[in-house]
Amino acid sequence: MIVISLPLPPSVNALYAGKGRRYKSKRYESWIIEARNALRMQKWTPYGEVPLSIHYRFGRPDKRVRDLLNLPKGIDDLLTSEGIIADDSWIHHAILEWANVQGAHIRINALQEAGSSL
Maximum Cα–Cα distance for the chain, whole Å? Predict the structure, then answer.
């Protein structure tokens, strides 16, 4: 099992900018730098190509209404680019919740079988 704490990612709606040709937004680029620095201060062992279960816990930074399902994409892409997971297609089970935490807390487990549950 891996447990990681990261800054709260931007919503999927704020990851990319541009019309026609899309590119990473400045906000997303800044978050990637901050999140990579946070990852480097934590211990983890990469998972290979195995089915995974991920539990995401997100803290609410303010009282604005937010869509919880728009938050994990940036994290999944970061976990892949940093080699923690082989690809986000290996996520076979996910739990997302608002919690009393700062930023985002992510727990990753390998599943015994592709169809198994926790």
Answer: 43
